[in-house]
Amino acid sequence: MKDPKGNKKSTRSNKYDKERKTIKILTFAVVVAALVVVVLIIMSLFSGGDEPQESTTESSSMIVKDSAESTQSDSQSSESSSESSSESESSESESSESEESEESESESVETNETEPSDENVTEAYTGDWDPIATEQQGEHTTDFNNGSQDRAEIKKAAAVATGLSESDMIEWWVENGGAEQVVATVSDSSQTKTYRVYLNWVDDQGWQPTKVEELKENDKQ
């Protein structure tokens, strides 16, 4: 007969061994899991620390680049604006000086009253105006076309004789007044004053005003 007590001891021993194996397996699994978690945390810390730094560096680089480009653009814009402003001021200054010179020359010329050529004239006078400097040389034939050198110089001579500025003058009519002579009808831009200007051509010197008539009304309008 088998001893019942011996069987009980054997059963308890087997049960205890199984429990120990189970505990070892669980302990090993916990340790492995803990190691995996630790490794993941370390990897996360290292990889997470690098990316923001790289992103920050790239962002800073872009900001510096954009700032430099913006500064260069502003500088070029400022230089362009300065050059444009300087050219505009220079052009306005030259125009103003030319008009002031014409007005001054008109005021300094001694004039004498003369007989008007018709009833539309309120005042007529002659003067000792100098010929307007010309760029034309050699034999001269008057060109009455708009934009011609003659028309430009006739306008300048009329401005000197009347005291009007070229920029504020309207040329209503320029006609042949005889051999190397023209008659120009001009007014200011507001048309408050209208003049008839007689001019002669002087070889190698240009157009010379000889007489001015202030008109009651514009007969060439």
Provide keyphrases for this structure.
single chain, 221 residues, alpha+beta, 2 domains, 6-stranded antiparallel sheet, 2 helices, 54% helix
Would you give an account of this structure?
With 221 residues, the protein is an alpha+beta fold. It folds into two domains: 1-108; 112-215. Helices cover 54% and strands 21% of the residues. It contains two helices and six strands, in the order αββαββββ. It has helices at 4-108, 149-162; strands spanning 111-113, 121-127, 169-178, 181-188, 194-202, 206-215. A six-stranded antiparallel β-sheet has the order 1-2-6-5-4-3, with helices on one face. A hairpin with a 7-residue loop joins strand 1 and strand 2 (121-127). It is rod-shaped, with a radius of gyration of 52 Å.
Low-confidence stretches: 50-68
**Sheet/helix structural class:** alpha+beta
Calculate the mean pLDDT score and round it: 80
- List the helices and strands in order: HEEHEEEE
Q: What is the overall number of helices?
A: 2
Helicity, in percent?
Answer: 40-55%
* Terminal residue distance: 154 Å
Outline type? rod-shaped
Q: How many domains would you count in the coordinates?
A: 2
Major sheet summary line: 6 strands, antiparallel
Spatial sequence of strands, sheet with the most strands:
1-2-6-5-4-3
**β content, as a range?**
15-25%
Number of strand segments = 6
What does the radius of gyration come to?
52 Å
